[in-house]
């Protein structure tokens, strides 16, 4: 299993490097969105208040995550998926996709936070808590959207639209927790206040990951 996962991860990294235009487009999206936010608030003569700063950051990261994960399964043809079916186990496929997307979204989230603080200031009072919450969010987005991407790819048609329709309702509870914890980090509240929310986020990530591991073989054979 570990050998299959490492092989699939290496394949995904090679494909991403060959299709650097897609990665460049994702980074351009994050950078240009942050810059537009900067221009909008600079016209008002200042930086956004912390609640708006927090909300805009998660909106940017959410749409960047959807754009990044959407191509995971949908860029592969049915013939390629059938070929993988003869070589590796479906559990290895979904775990490799989740790990790859988690690494990609973590890099995008950290870059987005860096650009965001450069252009729009840094009101974060508890940076360690904020970054930990950001990493949990990247992993949560990866686990949830990877399974949704697999369902959308199997359904055919306009997979991006189907992925958005299926993904947003699943992301709302996670987003509410992420925004709550990041707001606590912005305000510098005691970390004990955020402990329950962090544990809930961790539990959600584990539940979605386990669900993907159990259900993906049935989707893969469909």
Automatic annotation (TrEMBL):
Classification via InterPro entries: Cyt_c_biogenesis_CcmB
The UniProt record lists the keyword Disulfide bond: no
Annotated transmembrane regions: 21-43, 55-73, 94-121, 127-148, 160-179, 199-220
Cell compartments where the protein resides: Membrane
Keyword tags: Membrane, Transmembrane, Transmembrane helix
Entry keyword annotation includes Transmembrane: yes
Entry membrane topology: Multi-pass membrane protein
Pfam families, per database record: CcmB (PF03379)
Recorded family membership: Belongs to the CcmB/CycW/HelB family.
Protein name: Heme exporter protein CcmB
Natural source organism: Hymenobacter negativus
């Amino acid at each position: 299993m570990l050998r299959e996962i490492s092989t699939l991860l290496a394949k995904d990294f090679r494909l991403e490097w060959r299709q650097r235009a897609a990665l460049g487009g994702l980074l351009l999206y994050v950078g240009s969105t942050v810059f537009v936010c900067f221009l909008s608030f600079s016209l008002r003569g200042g930086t956004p208040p912390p609640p708006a700063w927090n909300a805009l950051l998660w909106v940017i990261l959410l749409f960047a995550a959807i754009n990044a994960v959407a191509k995971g399964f949908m860029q592969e043809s049915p013939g390629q998926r059938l070929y993988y079916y003869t070589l590796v186990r479906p559990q290895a496929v979904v775990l490799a996709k989740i790990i790859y997307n988690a690494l990609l979204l973590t890099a995008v989230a950290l870059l987005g936070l860096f650009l965001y603080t450069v252009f729009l200031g840094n009101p974060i009072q508890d940076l360690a808590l904020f970054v930990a919450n950001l990493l949990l969010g990247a992993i949560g987005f990866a686990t949830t959207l990877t399974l949704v991407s697999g369902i959308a790819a199997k359904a055919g048609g306009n997979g991006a639209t189907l992925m958005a329709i299926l993904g947003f309702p699943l992301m709302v509870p996670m987003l509410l927790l992420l925004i709550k914890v990041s707001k606590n980090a912005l305000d510098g509240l005691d970390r004990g206040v955020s402990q329950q929310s962090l544990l809930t986020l961790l539990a959600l990530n584990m539940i979605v990951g386990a669900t993907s591991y159990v259900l993906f073989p049935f989707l893969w054979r469909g």
